[in-house]
């Protein structure tokens, strides 16, 4: 498994978790018109989504040098060669190299 695949796997897992909280958020927001305690669920979903976003921003790191890659995560899977980055900006390791060899 390459470094790019490891990073994409982490990113997509967090993206799915945030999406799940988003679905719960909107369903709870719709139901909160009738049931008051659902507003607590809405507030909890906002906090949890923010936690996922902060996690992505701070813990999304190169496995070799631990430099933060949070601001580059969207270009990991870009199909356009101009937007796609292939090397870690911190240590220069190729993202297509095996993650076990770093
Ligand atoms: Zn690195």
Count structural domains.
Answer: 1
Largest sheet: none
Low-confidence stretches: none
Any idea what the shape is? elongated
DSSP helical segment count? 2
Bound molecules: zinc ion
Structural class: mainly alpha
**N-to-C SSE string, H for helix and E for strand:** HH
Q: Tell me the strand percentage band.
A: under 5%
Mean of all residue-level pLDDT scores: 86
Radius of gyration: 17 Å
Helix content: 40-55%
Count the E strands: 0
Gap from first CA to last CA: 12 Å
Describe the structure.
The chain has 102 residues and is mostly helical. It is 50% helix and 0% strand. It has one domain. The chain has helices at 3-31, 38-59. The protein is elongated and about 55 Å long. The structure holds zinc ion (ZN).
In a few lines, what is going on in this structure?
This protein has 102 residues and is mostly helical. It contains 2 helices and no strands.
Map the helices and strands:
Layout: H1 3-31, H2 38-59
Helix pairs in contact: 1-2
Zinc ion is lined by residues 62, 64-65, 67, 88, 90-91, 93.
Salient structural properties:
102 residues; 2 helices; binds zinc ion
């Amino acid at each position: 498994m390459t470094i790019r695949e490891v990073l994409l796997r982490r990113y997509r897992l967090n993206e799915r978790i945030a999406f799940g909280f988003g679905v719960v958020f909107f369903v709870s927001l719709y139901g909160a018109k009738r049931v008051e305690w659902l507003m607590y669920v809405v507030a909890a979903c906002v906090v949890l989504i923010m936690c996922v976003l902060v996690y992505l921003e701070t813990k999304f790191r190169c496995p070799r040098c631990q430099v933060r890659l949070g601001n580059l995560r969207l270009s990991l899977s870009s199909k356009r060669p101009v937007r796609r980055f292939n090397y870690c900006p911190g240590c220069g390791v190729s993202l297509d190299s095996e993650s076990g060899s770093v």
